[in-house]
Automatic annotation (TrEMBL):
<keyword id="KW-0472">Membrane</keyword>
<dbReference type="InterPro" id="IPR036259">
    <property type="entry name" value="MFS_trans_sf"/>
</dbReference>
<keyword id="KW-0813">Transport</keyword>
<feature type="transmembrane region" description="Helical">
    <location>
        <begin position="62"/>
        <end position="83"/>
    </location>
</feature>
<keyword id="KW-1133">Transmembrane helix</keyword>
<dbReference type="InterPro" id="IPR044770">
    <property type="entry name" value="MFS_spinster-like"/>
</dbReference>
<dbReference type="GO" id="GO:0016020">
    <property type="term" value="C:membrane"/>
</dbReference>
<feature type="transmembrane region" description="Helical">
    <location>
        <begin position="28"/>
        <end position="50"/>
    </location>
</feature>
<keyword id="KW-0812">Transmembrane</keyword>
<protein>
    <recommendedName>
        <fullName>Major facilitator superfamily (MFS) profile domain-containing protein</fullName>
    </recommendedName>
</protein>
Length: 157
């Protein structure tokens, strides 16, 4: 779901920022947050995995925890009526979502014998794009269009 979420945010995040928070430069804000969180989140995920002893079990624990907390923060961000509440929560959520990269790659590399590692990474890369960022924007757009979700209709928060 990592690439699905990032793919959806890349298009629909700025649109939601404009519609819900009336942001003039939503593309710049979402892009900046994504770049900074992508770099630091990926590095943090690798650093944490190294510190907690790199094992497949620990990689799954880190992956589960970062995904769970990242989802809470990203969802919670859209519950704020204020842009000043949204930005910090969304940033922490994206940081946690990007922290999943190290454990995912570790699991892909260490769950197969060494001679199959290139194939494992290739299959992972193709899978995350085919099931993730490629279909996410149209699917989220379809849901948004059929449900007519606007800033005033955020009853789930």
């Amino acid at each position: 779901f990592y690439n699905f979420v990032i793919g959806a945010y890349s298009y629909w995040g700025p649109k939601a920022g404009q519609d819900i928070y009336h942001m003039a430069s939503a593309d710049l804000m979402f892009g900046g947050i994504t770049i900074v969180c992508g770099i630091f989140g990926t590095l943090a995920g690798g650093f944490i995995l190294d510190k907690i002893d790199s094992t497949i079990s620990n990689a799954f624990k880190l992956l589960s925890g970062a995904t769970f907390l990242g989802a809470i923060f990203c969802f919670g961000a859209f519950c704020f009526k204020s842009l000043y509440g949204f930005i910090p929560f969304f940033s922490v959520g994206e940081l946690l979502v990007f922290a999943t990269q190290a454990p995912v790659n570790y699991i892909c590399l260490h769950s197969v014998k060494p001679s199959l590692r290139p194939l494992s990474m290739a299959m992972s890369t193709v899978s995350i794009h085919i099931l993730g960022d490629v279909p996410s924007s149209p699917i989220v757009g379809f849901i948004q269009r059929t449900k007519s979700i606007t800033g005033e209709q955020r009853r789930f928060c």
